[in-house]
Amino acid sequence: MRFIGNVIWLIFGGIVEALLWFVVGLVLCLTIIGLPFGVQCMKIAGFVLWPFGREVIPGGFGVMGALANVLWIVLVGWALALMSLATGVLFCITIIGIPFGMQHFKLAKLALFPFGAQIVRV
C-alpha cells in the first residue's frame, strides 16, 4: 500500500513539489547564511518525494536549532505550514484523499519545525 500511495503521490504533484523544494534549497545554499536553511529544504524535498511509510519525529535541538527554527517560522515556515495544512484539509474532504491529506499534515509539521526533526521509516 505504501508503494502504491507513493507512486500516486508522485504522479499527482509530488515530484513537482519535491523539485521545487530542492531548487529552493540549492538557491539557499549559495550563501553561507542560507546554507542551513538550504539543507533543511533538501531534507523536506526528500520527504516530499516519498512520504508514505515515513514519519516526522520532532527532535531535540540546542539553542542554535531553536533560534534557527524561530527564524525559519518567522520568514517562511508559517506560510509553508499553512499551505500544507490547507491542502491537507482539502484532500480530507473526500474519502479517497484522506491518506494524501494525512501526508500533507506531516509535511506541515516538518515545514514548521525542520531543525532537529528526523524523518524515520515506519
Give the proportion of residues in helices.
over 70%
Q: First CA to last CA: what distance?
A: 13 Å
What characteristic shape results from the CA principal axes? globular
**Gyration radius, in Å:** 14 Å
How many separate helices? Answer: 4
What spatial order of strands do you see in the largest sheet? Answer: 1-2
Write the layout of secondary structure elements.
Elements: H1 2-28, H2 35-49, E1 54-57, H3 63-91, H4 98-112, E2 118-121
Antiparallel strand pairs: 1-2
Helix pairs in contact: 1-2, 3-4
Descriptive report:
By secondary structure, the chain is mainly α. The protein has four helices and two strands. It has helices at residues 2-28, 35-49, 63-91, 98-112, and strands at 54-57, 118-121. Helix 1 (2-28) runs antiparallel to helix 2 and helix 3 packs antiparallel against helix 4. The protein has a two-stranded antiparallel ribbon with strand order 1-2. The longest helix has 29 residues, at 63-91. It is globular.
